[in-house]
Design a protein that fits this description.
With 144 residues, this protein is an alpha/beta fold. It contains 6 helices and 5 strands. The radius of gyration is 14 Å and the shape is globular. It comes from Paenibacillus gallinarum. InterPro entries: BrxB/BrxA. This is BrxA/BrxB family bacilliredoxin.
Length: 144
């Protein structure tokens, strides 16, 4: 029995996708979906650049989950998956200038403008609780 590499990867990453979509975060899988959602987003928008790496699993996704328990939250919640949905991720990263591509990463936009960004190096060296506190502070500052 043979399984294609693409099918294998889809099966492997689905639980990683589910960790965020189960929180009510909408997954954007194509560049067209990003283009249809991000430029028109009013208010505050969280965009999580998901990844298969250990720091996404141990810190980023759990940190986002804890932050979304906060009373104050962004109006829209989106995610793209680096390395899996490449065109969607590249299109989303256009909104994160001047930051270079980084995954995992977490962006907060207000009326389409980047107001807070957590890069991979800020995920790797911190706990999920520290990331949640960073996001919660940003939510309380920009999402009211």
């Amino acid at each position: 029995m043979s399984m294609s590499f693409d099918q294998y990867m889809r099966d492997m990453v689905q639980p990683m996708r589910d960790e965020l979509t189960n929180l009510g975060i909408k997954e954007l899988r194509t560049a067209e979906e990003v283009e249809a959602n991000l430029p028109e987003a009013k208010g505050t928008t969280l965009v999580v650049v998901n990844s298969v790496c250990g720091c996404a699993a141990g810190q980023a996704r759990p940190g986002v989950a804890r932050a979304l328990e906060n009373e104050v939250k962004p109006d829209q919640l989106f995610t793209v998956f680096a390395g899996q949905d490449k065109e969607a991720t590249a299109k989303a990263r256009e909104f994160f200038a001047p930051y270079p591509p980084s995954s995992p990463s977490i962006a907060l936009l207000k009326d389409g403008e980047l107001v807070h960004f957590i890069e991979r190096h800020q995920v790797e060296n911190r706990s999920a609780e520290e990331i949640a506190a960073d996001l919660t502070d940003a939510f309380n500052r920009y999402c009211k």
